[in-house]
């Protein structure tokens, strides 16, 4: 584990936040060697951080033992060059268990996934995240989405909680997000981090930047890091022409393809990694593989994205 605090290392991102897929072998067992290679390539390509065993990494499909193996492999592959953040979720007791496994594996922080199944009230969600933060030395980023949508007052209380350093928004309500950022700022908390956590976040990142949210997750980085890096640089430097070219020619068509199948936010990304030459295996059920014609469209889209980069050179 590195000595620099996670929040300080993430506050000014040098590149996209990398959410690697989890590699499986032919027998569907976790393949730590291929996973390690996948993570290492991402770090060397310019990722600012590795978020291991989160949504794109099929957190839901991993046993605690597999989770520990993968987080440890990610830490080994990162070699301290960038922070490694691990997922933690389900009910409070299991989230704490995953947090301790991540801590033992050398992770630098946690992404707290929404609680499993239940639709809890604000008081219960606040207690859940506070108990998780109190049970681990790792800093916690709360992931807002689905059944864990927080009102601004709750986020203020989370921001005041020791050990909770940020909010990742996968809900996509910009009005709510603006009110949340404003409420936390008005409460005098100045170092709280915000992340755009929507699927294919590059598509909505121009809007999130208007709220002051510069951090975002990039699943696309898994299989076309060169495109993700070019988009990140363009967003950071205000190169609107490049942002528009990539959004119009690659990201919007990718999102339209992604929306053709349930679970494609993970399985299509994993297919993209395979198309680029690294056999990370198929997704585990209940997710399913993309249809054959969708794979052909993905291959064509990758070629189109690379051509767009050449056009801008």
Automatic annotation (TrEMBL):
Coiled coil: none annotated. Pathway: Carbohydrate acid metabolism; D-glucarate degradation; 2,5-dioxopentanoate from D-glucarate: step 2/2. Its EC number is 4.2.1.41. SMART domains: DHDPS. InterPro entries: Aldolase_TIM, DapA-like, Dehydro-deoxyglucarate_dehyd. Keywords: Lyase. It catalyses: 5-dehydro-4-deoxy-D-glucarate + H(+) = 2,5-dioxopentanoate + CO2 + H2O. One of its GO terms (molecular function) is 5-dehydro-4-deoxyglucarate dehydratase activity. Pfam families: DHDPS. Signal peptide: none annotated. HAMAP family: KDGDH (MF_00694). Belongs to the DapA family. This is Probable 5-dehydro-4-deoxyglucarate dehydratase.
